[in-house]
Write a structure and sequence with these properties.
By secondary structure, the protein is α+β, with helices and mostly antiparallel strands. It is 39% helix and 15% strand. The radius of gyration is 21 Å and the shape is globular. The termini are close together.
Length: 477
């Protein structure tokens, strides 16, 4: 990677999240000053559509409380008594409940209520000292790989504001890439961390299912299950969006409540990782249905990553993976099955985005038996790919197949055309969610146009730190 992602015009890049965290814990800067700075940047960069809402008063109230806590501690106490992310500002996707903030879920069809409690993952980061300043833009119900809805302005790509920032964590990725935030949590149910990370030139880690304990916390047995109510593998997990591997590791350690900072320590020891057996493949399970064609830029990033990994002493070989040709239908069915549980009156249905409305109608018409059959097929797919990929220490695939489409390119089409473009643009991400394994998106090349192209690395269960080490190796200059 030749350069860090640029900030929005005339805005200096933020320090790294690690550097800012260290400055906050040492008292070099106050939480109030840190929060004030990011609020200013967010307000100044409002044309990117990264934020659905900001709450200056609430954020500064929390910052003042953090500063008061810092002042109450003797200098010798601060190293162990301050939370690890003391005073670090961030923001959460507008799919997520954050106390005091309105949640829209990106939908004009649903009530917009102010949350009285934090979602489990939010609570973990708040206890770690992070301070939320607002809610970031998402697609309706988090369904798509772009962040455009009927609630707020679309999330635009800081590398090219005419293009999408991706989704469903598009607003969060835009905010980090534009140096409005030092780092941000995202969620990923089919690529929703990795797609915007790749689009905006960031590192995006999708942990394995269960690696972040709060992903399997809730009030019902279904909340704690590894499968959804139809028996399909549970897809969604939470993870970090960051400008480099160290910042991603910092947030990942906090999200999982790790003792110490093992992922960050691993990234700092990146030189110790060598002699890995890495399988490289451009095969996509969507190929039986959609034409998967890598652009010259995507191929350049993939080829460059192979060369860089080989130069680090890893053995990279072509991998002959084969995928169930029934995957596209099974995934699409399972991905939209939950819409059959969305109860709305006719007026609310009319306010749904066209893609959501169409796929909800189909989900209602299919019935639960079809959904369960799709779930069963995805479980078989997961078992198969885990065995195939498990022959390697890591698997390398392209990231996105082409440059990010322009704002409006998806919504200008009918539901099927919209979905087809998503699959052709991001044909390598959803299969990893089905597998339950971790993966990381890594920026590799910066094009003369300013766009970024990257790759994806898939790991074995529990290999998140190793994936971040490989990301660090690929980004070393």
């Amino acid at each position: 990677m030749t350069d860090s992602p640029p900030a929005s015009p005339a805005v200096a890049p933020l320090p790294s999240a690690v550097a800012w965290r260290d400055a906050l814990r040492s008292g070099e800067i106050s939480a109030h000053d840190a929060v004030t700075e990011v609020l200013h940047r967010a307000e100044r960069g409002s044309d990117l559509g990264a934020f659905v809402s900001l709450d200056r008063d609430l954020a500064l109230e929390h910052a003042s409380a953090a500063d008061a806590h810092f002042a109450s501690l003797a200098p010798a106490e601060r190293a162990h008594a301050l939370p690890r992310l003391h005073g670090l500002p961030t923001a959460f996707k507008d799919l997520t409940e954050v106390t005091g903030f309105v949640t829209t879920r990106g939908s004009a069809a649903l009530p917009h209520a102010r949350a009285d409690d934090d979602a489990p993952g939010v609570a973990v980061l708040r206890r770690a000292g992070a301070i939320p300043i607002g809610k970031t833009q998402v697609p309706e119900l988090g369904l798509t790989g772009y962040s455009e809805n009927a609630v707020a302005a679309p999330a635009r790509n800081p590398l090219d504001p005419e293009r999408t920032a991706g989704g469903s964590s598009g607003g969060s990725a835009a905010a980090v890439a534009a140096s409005m935030l030092p780092v941000a949590p995202g969620s990923d149910g089919g690529g929703s961390i990795r797609i915007p990370a790749l689009a905006c030139g960031l590192v995006g880690l999708k942990p394995g299912l269960g690696a972040v304990p709060s992903d399997l916390v809730g009030g019902t047995p279904a909340d704690r299950s590894l499968h959804d109510e139809f028996g399909a593998p549970r897809l969604a997990v939470t993870g970090p969006l960051a400008r480099d591997a160290a910042d991603a590791a910092l947030l990942f350690d906090a999200q999982r409540g790790a003792t110490g900072e093992p992922a960050l320590a691993a990234v700092r020891a990146v030189g110790s990782v060598t002699d890995l057996h890495i399988g490289a493949s451009t095969a996509s399970p969507f190929a039986p249905v959609y034409p998967i064609v890598l652009s010259a830029e995507a191929q350049q990033a993939f080829t460059s990553a192979i060369a860089q990994l080989s130069a680090r002493g890893h053995e990279v070989e072509d991998a002959a993976f084969t995928y169930d040709p029934g995957y596209p239908d099974a995934f699409t069915t399972s991905w939209t099955a939950g819409l059959s549980r969305l109860r709305l009156d006719d007026a609310a249905v009319d306010r749904l985005m066209p893609l959501t409305r169409t796929f909800r109608e189909r989900a209602l018409a299919r019935g639960d038996d079809t959904h369960r059959a799709a779930g069963s097929r995805l479980r078989e797919f997961a078992s198969d790919v885990r065995a195939q990929w498990g022959a390697y220490d890591a698997v390398l695939t392209p990231g996105l197949a082409m440059l990010p489409p322009r704002i409006g390119a998806f919504t200008a089409q009918d539901a099927d055309g919209d979905y087809r473009l998503q699959c052709e643009w991001a044909p390598y991400t959803s299969m990893v969610n089905v597998s339950g394994l971790p993966a990381v998106a890594v920026p590799i090349v910066r094009l003369p146009s300013g766009h970024s192209m990257g790759v994806q690395l898939i790991g074995r269960t529990g290999s998140e730190a190793l994936l971040l080490q490989l990301a660090a190796q690929l980004m070393e200059r």
